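request received
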Amino acid sequence: MNRMQRSAIALAAGAGIVALAAYAQQPGATPSSSVEQYREMLADDNPAELWEARGEDLWKQKRGPKKASLERCDLGLGPGIVKGAYTVLPKYFADSDRVEDLESRLVTCMVTLQGLTPEEAKKNPFASPGKKVPMDALVAYVSAQSRGMKVNVSLDHPKEREAYEVGRKIFYYRAGPHDFGCVTCHGADNERIRLQDLPNLTQAAGSQRAFTTWPAYRVSQGEVRSMQWRLNDCFRQARFPQLEFVSPASIALELFLAHNANGGVMNAPSVKR
Amino acid sequence: MRHARIAAASFVVAIAGCAAPTTTQTNAASDAEVSRVLHASFQSRGQATLDRLDQDEVQRACSQAQGKPVARDVAERLQKAQLATIKYPADGELMGDWKAGEKIAQSGIGKQYSDDPTAVAGGNCYACHQLTKQEIAYGTIGPSLLGFGRNRGFTPEMRKYVYGKVYNAEAYMACTNMPRFGHMNILTEQQIKDVVALLMDPKSPVNQ
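response:
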């Protein structure tokens, strides 16, 4: 993103905050409803398109020791099929003999098709201040090709069922100095942390609302964030140790959440605060 | 215990026949398998070391209940054991400064690997509770505490209850979402006194 685009976004975000403050003063406005309105304003213009375009370039670019593109990567619907692939992930892959999500599958393809080592492919999975990473762009590109399509994650394979059950237990797993687990914030309807609405991830409606809107462009961070990032940062806030990128726990939990969101219509990358 | 679990599992299957649960029921994963997956998936970073994955008996029982209430006898046993952990101040004084308490209620700093381990931790009360009319950015995971002392009476018994509740909430309601601020060394004794003052001092904005 160039400097002009960045300042335009910053300006828009600033205007949103001013509008939010003004709206909050209107009689009858609740804090949540003004945040909701702020979100609607943001959705008009989605900076994630820049990541999607960059991701498409990276997908087609010949990279790595094998000087190959990712265009023959099998994301679950067959080699090279990107459209709709995000709706079936995470899923079991026979070639790697395990359940993989999008980020994990991209790592697998970078290794098998492009010749990167697993360590190279997993390095820098999330953007840091001033430093964009290929993974965010690829995730934005692939997920956007499922926009408008229904989540359709299967439990047909025994390893998918096993991962789902591990994911369920991790969702309810409370530990650490605060006794927190996913369920602490995401186990009931209509709850907020400060002013942030919390989806109930034990129910279909809440799971669909959450799962279909990740990855997302985060206005406060100026970055597209993946589902792997979302889970990683939730565990940080829950005072857990660091969740490793594409780790078995992250994929099991994601499968649990994705399957509970089946039938929801994908609308990612979305725009979030 | 194992028989009880099998009986509980069959009961779940029986219920599932009547009303479809929203989450899919298949064969449950064993606790050993979950522990293996967790230990293979996290790594220590800063103050958040891997031993945080190990559960105490409260965490284990509450996790097994999967968001549902634990059995009454289990709840009573857990609460009794947690009640015994509460250390009241040696000087007998339970109330500090509500202004310091308000700062603690606002601050979410503490125990995250991204936090400076030497920084003063907060209680982050506003994340889950309404406390004062002035602060509109409050969460709703816990009940509103607006007017707490005024509504319940500014009595020594109530002060003692609040101190204990903040120190170890599991002593009063098994598997509550509220952290055990004293028992887990999140807040110091003085900080808990300050939070008690925020709720129980007649001059605190909570009671205006």
